[in-house]
Amino acid sequence: MSRVPGALWKNLIALQIYGANTGVGKTVFSTLLAAHFTRREGKQRWNLNYIKPVSTGPSSEADDRYVRKYTGKSAYTIFQFDDPVSPHIAARGSQQDPSNEQLLRRLGARLEKAACDSNLVRGSMGIAIVETAGAVLSPGPSGTPQADLFRPLRLPAVLIGDHRLGGIGSTISAAESLIVRGYDIDAVICFDDKSKFENAAYLTDHFGKMNIPTFTLPWIPDLQGSGEEEEAQRMTAYYQTNSRAAHMYQVGGRLIDMHIKRLSSLGSMSARTKETIWHPFTQHKHIEKAADVLVFDSAYGDYFQVKHTDTSLHDVERKEDTTLLYPAFDGSASWWTQGLGHGNPKLALQAAYAAGRYGHVMFAGATHEPAITLAERMIKGLANPRLRKIFYSDNGSTATEVGIKMSLRASCKRYEWTGARHEVGVLGLRGSYHGDTIGAMDASEPCVFNEKVDWYRGRGFWFDYPTFKLRKGRWVVEPPKDMDEEFGPTQYFETMESIFDFDFRGQSPRYEAYIEKTLDKLVKEQHRKFGALIIEPCILGAGGMVFVDPLFQQSIVRVVRRYNFSTTGAAVAPAHELDWAGLPVMFDEVFTGLYRLGRFTAASFLKVHPDISVHAKLLTGGLLPLSITATSQSLFDAFWGNEKSDALLHGHSYTAHPIGCHIANVSLESMSDLNTVDSSWRKYKGDWILNTPADERAWSMWSQRFVHHISKHDRVDYVNALGSVLAVSLVDKSGSSGYSSSAAVGLRDRLLNEISRTQVRIHSRVLGNIIYLMASMTSKPKHLAAVEAAFTEKLNALSD
Amino acid sequence: MSRVPGALWKNLIALQIYGANTGVGKTVFSTLLAAHFTRREGKQRWNLNYIKPVSTGPSSEADDRYVRKYTGKSAYTIFQFDDPVSPHIAARGSQQDPSNEQLLRRLGARLEKAACDSNLVRGSMGIAIVETAGAVLSPGPSGTPQADLFRPLRLPAVLIGDHRLGGIGSTISAAESLIVRGYDIDAVICFDDKSKFENAAYLTDHFGKMNIPTFTLPWIPDLQGSGEEEEAQRMTAYYQTNSRAAHMYQVGGRLIDMHIKRLSSLGSMSARTKETIWHPFTQHKHIEKAADVLVFDSAYGDYFQVKHTDTSLHDVERKEDTTLLYPAFDGSASWWTQGLGHGNPKLALQAAYAAGRYGHVMFAGATHEPAITLAERMIKGLANPRLRKIFYSDNGSTATEVGIKMSLRASCKRYEWTGARHEVGVLGLRGSYHGDTIGAMDASEPCVFNEKVDWYRGRGFWFDYPTFKLRKGRWVVEPPKDMDEEFGPTQYFETMESIFDFDFRGQSPRYEAYIEKTLDKLVKEQHRKFGALIIEPCILGAGGMVFVDPLFQQSIVRVVRRYNFSTTGAAVAPAHELDWAGLPVMFDEVFTGLYRLGRFTAASFLKVHPDISVHAKLLTGGLLPLSITATSQSLFDAFWGNEKSDALLHGHSYTAHPIGCHIANVSLESMSDLNTVDSSWRKYKGDWILNTPADERAWSMWSQRFVHHISKHDRVDYVNALGSVLAVSLVDKSGSSGYSSSAAVGLRDRLLNEISRTQVRIHSRVLGNIIYLMASMTSKPKHLAAVEAAFTEKLNALSD
């Protein structure tokens, strides 16, 4: 459950006390810290809160009583289990709901109350000490390791070191487990047992290099053999002496400083960003004030943790006790990259593994295990007999340029053109977009994206095509405006699935005739030269989430492969059935591939085997840049020669970087498991598919009922949903459309700034009058249902 | 010390036994495993080796004696310290050399002997059990945590879990510390104490999800109160019963399987790579056999761990007991990226931190702490008042394209050109290279790299220039062939430093006149339009490690900034002194910046403030892709407008990905510390610089003596060294030169395949007749001295 606000308040220092192991003095330190803040001198009054989320063992011996006993302040336990074992065992058979969600909600509410209480007295500050149980990764009641369980709150951590033999190693390992999960460790505490192990000295040095201070506290009195009363006396003396000693002022000062530093950093970030950052794809004149830039403290699962601004608070009473952060559903899947959730500890750990095993290693003339494994996995997953070789690069744009270079070279060789002298273009579809480097831009028709790019030269021809959509509850395939003659009139379908049912639809002589006629005009009449067909299968993404009639995309590949593009006359027959024919066919699956639409490839929807397949974005599960150009033997062979200059002289420094390749392997395996094993997808599929093998069908993570419902809304023109993608075309009452329309902006702003009745805020992106939402592959049905409800609610509000 | 071979032999299974903590049963398991392999049934005979690298406490109670006692086999301790404390304390004042180097060498030799021994009996296999002390990160004798200390060997790990309360958490944390350091964990072992903690059940499930099997072994007899004899009897019985029990066959089987799997994976990788990988910048026809592709098992520090091939073994007697891996100095710094050493645990952990805190988060309209901190750090480090804004992208090529788009737009606006209609080019230097995407390629003159790129259109003009070098012991600045008239005759300098001393050299009226005359011809006579000056400061990298006379580069900037490029007549004066003048000046510091030459910027050598500065490669310390285009306010303002299309519509999905930005922050801070704090650089600087403030001077990590020495070699034409870069131009006896020359290939092959007398192999790259070496920022003088000796040795061998 990650839809809880990050725990940060202005007037409350909330901390989480973790131990390197059990028995290292977490409770003693918590008590000491509580006593310190109770008695801390200075003008600041401190409102004390001690919270034990989970306690096991008899309640008479529980830590909350202990803290109460020595500080005189109230202390609170959320879950108390009598059995002195790990919480995940103790919770079995308990009447309490031990889910992470329940625990986080109750802890969040308790902290919120603490923040509220600290405001009751003017000028007072609160401190909340949240003491964990056992070691950093000891399981919570649900079985989830604590540091994972509590991660959505991302409380600053204080780590109590282990003073015993072996404690240096276990303390550092515990710290590393926190760091891997994105925690900030404010301080390490060592109780100095005066042993000769010198753990504190070592740890001070070690953590000092990481800018984490280590504080040494006097050893805890040895109570062996003490009676209850003697014990109480000795501990009372210990706490009285030490709570006001210099070392506790240092600890307290550090914790206060870190709190102020975090607030000040968050508070200054939007202004600093406005000063220094040139944002991608952004007209900076439109950013009126610094606060228009969202500040992300962190992210977890499907949610960003966003800093509140006056705008985001406009329907929440402005209270100091409201957490400074709010969770927002990442509705663009962070530019279509997100697959396995933000802050995924498995990916984080595996990224570190590859970094620890290799760092980066050069890939020219060399190889390594993650790169070769990923190449083989991709070839297998693509399930396309044409695709045999994998070329690595860094992003969709570079991978597209690689594919263009491959295609053009092969075509120029076969058709005996010289690229440098002849203008060889590409064939594509109107509104295609393949990336922002000049070569990738040149493969797209003139549009707003390249209008003012001075070196842009649109090199090719881009076809019109029919599109499909759900309009007012009916699935339709529509021709572009005034092109009924070319594409036929609007066709109606019972289900989305039937649009993809080629057995049912057959081939389209009309589409093929149109394509052929157009090619004749270009090639035979105008003598134009083409070197590749480049298609985004199923959906044109940046072009406006346009869902193309799959039968048209299938048709254009069929026609191109039988067409004679030679300008010297005779057709050139490919030597082998898997060789490219007509033109190399390149699918840009950067957006649509690798489970974005619920399948490994988008090509499978078209039942087409391209000669080149380009992948990025979800390839690394949404963690870091890596891209792949998968290609055929016949394209590879076009670069075979005696000269180095015959080769594909392309390669970026971090080509096939091991971290990216290894993370891609982990991600693709995880996503494959979701497709085959996980029950969430079964639920999504079940909503769209009846009685047919799920994998052969089109389905969406957005519910059919919701999609149909909003398609009938008066402000909605049409809707599409496929896999994790939802696109809603809004009616622009101003009459403008396309990229320059701003119909969707109002809805986008409401979704973010006005919390819904289902307690959801949504961060979304728009493309002109299209607003779209995208789930990650691990989004839970329950969360998406709440997002759907929020969307419907805010859509309705538009009409008010 | 990382120049030890990775520990992998065909006939020896070498394992490292790590404990989740002290007192978890490492020695009992080691003994049990030893006993198991001693008695294991089957046709395989096992030669047993038990090695305790470091033992503390009385030798009479040491683990080696214990193992010997219960297995009857010999056992070996490398370092024995009597005091029962952590080795780093025990080693103080000891007569032994407790350095990591010493320990690794002795352990390596012992393992090599074990491999050798196992070959004495035909058909026998060896097993080597290397038992660590304490927890995974407990310090070794030098103070280095054990898992770091032993990392160069990268032995497969067996982790003994902690059975106690808190042991679930500490065991997982210990495993994570191993994983962060790139270890493979073959198995987790849990002793089942029948307690109600159920640690084994939890760990089995947890590690099962990571494909690591957990084996549960029967509880160790409780020996409390037993006499010595009784203890011996009970433990003997325990080992006898369990060593041949089914569970130990499972453990043994798993360890054997993993060994075979690793061998088979390494063995098949070159062939699998040849089958599936399309390598960057590679003419595949030149890869004659699969084994020509180097297989990297891993990498650490400055060294790759490379799989031996027949070629690499050609001067080593082919023995089965020679480790299958050899360390090779990464002499190209993995395509000029490597800065802080391969497998750097600090970078690995911090990569995981950013992944755990954010994953990737979208950057359009949003911001996060690592991105803004890095932007500010870059602006500060660049120390150029013109540079105010940071644009993020993924690699040098995309960052260059961004810079080109910025420059052209600004120029076209000021000079009232329309890029789409007018051919606006760039000015640059002959042999420049800025990356492999089409736009970046178009900014370079026609050359071998773009000769067969069909969309390549060289758009611009590229100047000739004088170069500097050390030729036969003398520093010279030379004009290009037959251009004495333009640039003057060869100039001689006492030191490299004096070439950069503009106080001494003054300005060059001759250079400036030449540049101005050339511009007049282009602009006034031919009416050509230019939109940017793009320069690689100091060194043209891919163009062949060409060291340009810094005075010429300074001159061209000076002339361009005062020249009138307007084609409509009147000069356009910039409004502000920090605005670009003449043309935007863009420095491509992808290769030369960020400490590659010993300073934050290469621009500082020229004493020039460019309007755009492009950075990548070392930006992340050599870990993963990220790039930056730093730019001025006046260029930013050129994209300010009412229309979205006025904006810079560029942005990759993973723009400013938090892992990259955070790692860049950590790396830049580390490299800055090396420059200011670390003593190694002081030694390098001291070798080149006398009596002057070090930061204002040119120096190299390659020793002056070595550089001078080889410059006089009969096979060497000239040498350059600056910062971490060494470039040696070889005399090509065939008379060919440049990219198509193969003079350097012979030396490159010898450096890798023939081990030097200093026991070094070097992986290097060549550019035509240039062979170059590059250190990482953390390379130690001692290692570089050994590399220099190897280079000299192999160079001499060429002449034989």
From TrEMBL, chains A, B:
A molecular function GO annotation: adenosylmethionine-8-amino-7-oxononanoate transaminase activity
Cross-referenced InterPro entries, in alphabetical order? Aminotrans_3, Aminotrans_3_PPA_site, P-loop_NTPase, PyrdxlP-dep_Trfase, PyrdxlP-dep_Trfase_major
Quote the Gene3D superfamilies the UniProt record gives. Answer: P-loop containing nucleotide triphosphate hydrolases (3.40.50.300), Type I PLP-dependent aspartate aminotransferase-like (Major domain) (3.40.640.10)
- Organism (species): Setomelanomma holmii
Which biological process terms from the Gene Ontology are attached to this UniProt entry? biotin biosynthetic process
Please indicate if the UniProt record lists Phosphoprotein as a keyword: no
Q: Work out whether the entry's keyword set contains Transferase.
A: yes
Q: What is this protein called?
A: PLP-dependent transferase
